[in-house]
Amino acid sequence: MKVFSGTSNRPLAQSICEYVGIELGKSTVSSFPDGETFVKVEENVRGEDVFVVQSTSPPTNHHLMEMFIMMDALRRASALRITAVLPFYGYARQDRKDQPRVPITAKLVANLLVAAGADRVLTMDLHAQQIQGFFDIPVDHLYAAPVMYDYLKQKKVDKLVVVSPDVGGLKMAHAYSQVLEAGLAIVAKRRKSATEIESMAVIGEIRGKSILMVDDLTETAGTLTAAAALLKKKGARQIRACVSHAILNDLGIERLRKSNIDELITTDTVFRPPIDGVKITTLSVAGLLGEAIRRIHNNASVNSLFEFKGGRTS
C-alpha cells in the first residue's frame, strides 16, 4: 500500500500516513511557466494498492486537475488499484438541474475521476448523499460526526439544542440531536443569492438554551451568521457552529468576526492558515480516514466507521 498527496492538504496526508504507519509516497508536483501542472511519481508503484489524498478546496480547478494528472501518472506506472481520497468533494453543490440550461457538475467530476483512473472513491460529508450514485465504482462515504461527537461530549454542554441553519440540513441535525441527547430546532430561510439570505424564522424552543448549529460546509458564512443573529435575538444563551468543511473566504472570516457565534468547530478536511479574531477549533479526521484506508486495503468492512455511541451518522 502507498499513499500519495497532491498540494491541497499535505499536513492531513502526512497525519494519515502516521496513523497507518507508512511513509508518504514521494512525488514531485510543479508547474510549467504557462501554468500547466507537471507530476512525477518518484518511486515504484507497479502492482501497488495506491491512495491519492487531495481535497478539492480553492483553487478548486487547479487541485482537481492536479489530482487527475497524478492518477494518470500512477495508472501509466501500472498501479494495481487507485483510490481517490477526497476529504472534501468540490462541486458537490451542483448536484441537480435547479434552473434551465445549467450543468450537473458533481456528476461531471465523478466521470472525470473515473476517466483519470480512479477504481474507488473515499470521501467525507458529501453535500448531497445522492452523489454516491453518480459513480459506477465503489464509494465509501465517511462522516466527521464521530470526531465532533467526542469533542462535544468532553465539553459537557447543558441545555443543548441542535439547530439546522436550513431545512436541507435537518437530517444531519436530527442525527446529532439523537446521539447528544439534545433538543432539535430549525431555522427556515429563503435564499436571495449565493451570498445573501432574505427572510428567516425559527421553529423550536431555543430561549435560554445552548445552541449547536450543524452544517456540512461554509464558505461566506452567510447562512450561519444570519441564523446566529436570529437565534440570539430569540434568546439563545450560547451559540456554537459545527461545520465539517470550513472553506472560509475573506467575506466569511469578516462575517464570523462580527457574528454571535462563540465557537466554530470544524475539521482539517481542508487546509486553512490560522485566522485571527475568530475562535476556531479544528479537529483532525486523519484517524478516521487512515482507518478507512487500512480497511479498504485489507478488504475489511468499513461499515462500523459509520456507527458511533449507539447512533448512526447517516
Query: What integer value in Å does the Rg equal?
Result: 20 Å
| CATH hierarchy: architecture of the largest domain | 3-Layer(aba) Sandwich
What is the CA-CA span between the terminal residues? 29 Å
Query: How many extended strands?
Result: 16
Kindly report the spatial arrangement of strands forming the biggest sheet.
10-9-8-11-12-13-14
What do these coordinates show?
With 314 residues, the protein is α/β, with parallel strands linked by helices. It folds into two domains: 2-142 and 286-312, Rossmann fold, CATH 3.40.50; 145-283, Rossmann fold. Helices cover 30% and strands 27% of the residues. The longest helix has 17 residues, at 60-76. The chain is globular and about 60 Å long. The mean pLDDT is 90.
Task: List the SSEs and their pairings.
Layout: E1 2-5, H1 10-20, E2 27-31, E3 37-41, E4 49-53, H2 60-76, E5 81-86, H3 105-116, E6 120-124, E7 139-142, H4 145-155, E8 160-164, H5 170-179, E9 183-191, E10 197-203, E11 210-218, H6 222-233, E12 238-246, H7 250-258, E13 263-267, E14 280-283, H8 286-297, E15 307-308, E16 311-312
Parallel strand pairs: 1-4, 4-5, 5-6, 6-7, 8-9, 8-11, 11-12, 12-13, 13-14
Antiparallel strand pairs: 2-3, 9-10, 15-16
